[in-house]
Amino acid sequence: MSAKIAGAPISWGVIEVPGWGHQMSQDRVLNEMTELGYSACEFGPLGFLPVEAAGRVATLREHGLSAVGGFVPVVLHVATHDPKPEIRAELEVFKAAGAEAMVLAASTGSEGYDNRPVLTDAEWQTLFTNLTELETLAAEYGILAVIHPHMGTIIESAEDVARVLAGTSIGFCLDTGHMLIGGADPVTFARDHADRVKHVHAKDVNLALANKVKSGEWTYYEGVAAGMYVPLGQGDVDVASIVRSLEGAGFSGWYVLEQDYVVTAEPAEGEGPIIDARASVTYLRSLLGE
After folding, report:
1. Is the distance from CB of 74 to CB of 83 less than 8 angstroms?
2. C-alpha–C-alpha distance, residues 263 and 286, integer Å
3. How many CB atoms lie within 10 A of CB 284?
4. Which of 107, 134, 259, 274 is deepest in the core (most CB within 10 A)?
């Protein structure tokens, strides 16, 4: 099997959002990733791993893991804000840690994922310009920069995704869950735009619960806490069709298993997020082995 599979700390409830829930320890999360057979993972939020690159590498190596890269929220639509200095600082660490991909999210500038502004045409153009410049900057460091459509960010809906497709040439992180919840069809995207998919966050969704978030009845956090995300193959995302389209197009990036999760208390050994994570990686491996 040539496909590359990696883990992400958010599948264990580890996230940058304040008040999200119990944050499991670094060692437990990494040990459980290793138990599931992962060879690599994304960094997770700042502070989950050591801030300095040497410390990140040493910590991952202790657990038999290498660095894929990580999720980096950044404000892209404000004309008076230059994102390049902060991204350059991140790229220095990514390169030193041997990471391959920087997953950019178009942050609203606010904490959490429950509110987002409507951009003017001028603000969209600023966002496009910044994405193009950050893609070029990342390439100077040997890092692949991709854009991640994400609930509660500037790039969320099918219309937003279409704007970015037309306004830039940057590659996408296809998040199968966020794209579906935002209103774009990840199956169609993988079929029609496989050439733009350079990185994957693999999720599955209980759409009945997700619709409560889409309608505004629940916040994003409430949806996640209620079990909006489920193990791969157990929800309403046609993960099998997506994988077939990407593999048929010669996809060579990472499949990062991401099931956004809220942990309310420290689970007993062998319990908690590892159960869903095991189901997801088993399912994905079965698809890739077909």
Report:
1. yes
2. 27
3. 22
4. 259
What is the per-residue burial (b if ≥16 Cβ within 10 Å, else e) of 12-24? bbbbebeebbebb
Write the DSSP assignment of 19-35 as a string of letters.
Answer: TSS----HHHHHHHHHH
Cα separation of 192 and 141, whole Å? 30
Question: How far is 97 from 60, CA to CA, in rounded Å?
Answer: 10
Residue 54, exposed/middle/buried by CB under 10 A (0-12, 13-18, 19+)?
exposed
- Cβ atoms 146, 199 nearer than 8 A: yes
Please calculate the CA angle 285-161-204 and round it to the nearest 5 degrees.
30
Q: What is the pLDDT of residue 54?
A: 94
Q: How confident is the model at residue 2 (pLDDT cuts 50, 70, 90)?
A: low
Between 289 and 130, whose confidence is greater? 130
Alpha-helix residue ranges (DSSP H) falling in the chain:
26-35, 53-62, 84-96, 121-140, 158-167, 176-182, 186-192, 207-214, 220-225, 239-248, 273-288
State how far Cα 277 lies from the chain centre. Answer: 15
pLDDT of residue 46: 87
CA–CA dist 264, 217 (Å, integer):
22
Q: Does the pLDDT at position 181 exceed 80?
A: yes
pLDDT at 16: 80
Q: Is the pLDDT of residue 175 over 80?
A: yes
Give the pLDDT confidence score for residue 116 in this predicted structure.
76
Q: What CATH topology corresponds to 4-288?
A: TIM Barrel (3.20.20)
d(CA 133, CA 125): 12
CA–CA separation, 194 and 171 (whole Å): 10
- Distance (Å, whole) CA 177 – CA 124: 24
Q: Report which of 200, 196, 189, 70 is spatially closest to residue 138, judged by C-alpha positions.
A: 70
Q: Report the half-sphere exposure of 234 (CA within 13 A, side-chain side).
A: 15
pTM of the complete model: 0.94
